[in-house]
Amino acid sequence: MNGEMWITLVDTADIVGFSLTLCVNIVLLCLLRTRGKNLGTYKYLMAFFSVFSIFYAIIESILRPIMHIENATFFLISRKRFNYSTRLGKINSAFYCACFATSFVVSGVHFVYRYFASCKPDLLRFFNMPNLLLWPLGCSIPVTMWASVSYFLYPDTDYTEAAVSDVLRNHYSWIKKENVSYIAYVYYQYENGVRYVYIKNLLGCFVHYFVMSMTFVVMFYCGFSTWKTMRIHKEISDRTRQLQKQLFKALVLQVSVSFWLITSSELQTLIPSIFMYAPTGVMFIAPFFNIDLNANANFIVFCSFLYPGLDPLILILIIRDFRQTIFRFVRRKKNSVDESRSTTRNMSVAATNS
User: Fold this and answer.
1) Going by C-beta distance under 8 Å and a sequence separation of 6 or more, which residues neighbour residue 138?
2) Domain extent at residue 26
3) Can you give the C-alpha Rg of the chain in angstroms?
4) pLDDT digits (tens, 9 = 90+) for 295-340
5) Rounded to an integer, what distance in angstroms lies between the CA atom of residue 20 and that of residue 141?
6) At the top level of its lineage, which domain of life is listed (predicted)?
7) Chain center to CA of 31
8) Number of H helices, E strands in the chain
9) Which end of the chain is flanked by fewer CB atoms within 10 Å, N or C?
10) Distance from CA of residue 264 to its chain's centroid?
């Protein structure tokens, strides 16, 4: 598809995703407050991720990112809602990258908690106060690495200025250069038939790959160990087992939905976690092989706009207490409306007869 169609889809996903994110996460926070007693300290981790999802959706809506891959270069372009300096635009783009990385890292922490709860319950003390406060500090290290690389290792040059101008002119002609900020991941370029490799840029991509790989290894190991333990041990109560399985399935589905592969089979619980990284992997690998996705790279943005709203929706639907609370609320509202209509109808009939 061309740039205009993708921008239309992305902007629509922005509106739908932001509304969904705000509504669903507020509902989840209310459920955690009223129905989350059996979740222990895990409810605080869920609440943090819920608040972060709202914050992430706000940042995305403000920056309105565009992703484009062309000529061995990945462009992250932000459309300005108001005028600000080039340096501030660069900082904003790097901050968006930090939020993007946070979603990976926090997902890994979710799997660590479920692993501790199922396999190493004595280690759950690391999720109790005051140890709980150390987790945001630990998560900030890879997130800061990701953001710092995006800001410092990909400077604006004459080449990137000309390249982003060409991208806007050829694919997004209605967007003016002065109304955007960008980060250009240039892997290499050709001059007079000679290829010049950008070592600094490749080093930055290596840091991104390292962060992604480490979080994936943590999720894979913890996920497999949790799944294996739940199938082997039978001594825990049915209620506890059901809750553990609900939370684990929710984690798997949360990871799966990030690229639209959803499965509920326990034999496939680990497979979807691999594909969570597929869009981001394509984002960084395609330029290396000089694969021009052009405006089609915006499918990553499209998914990222919808993900913060779909992610908590899975928790609400999978966890039985949350699901039943919602269903009871909907039934009460429906019964209330039906009673109101019945009363109004009876009053109308009585007035007619009189």
Assistant:
1) none
2) 3-326
3) 24
4) 999 988 888 888 788 778 877 877 778 888 888 888 887 777 666 6
5) 30
6) Eukaryota
7) 21
8) 11, 5
9) C
10) 20
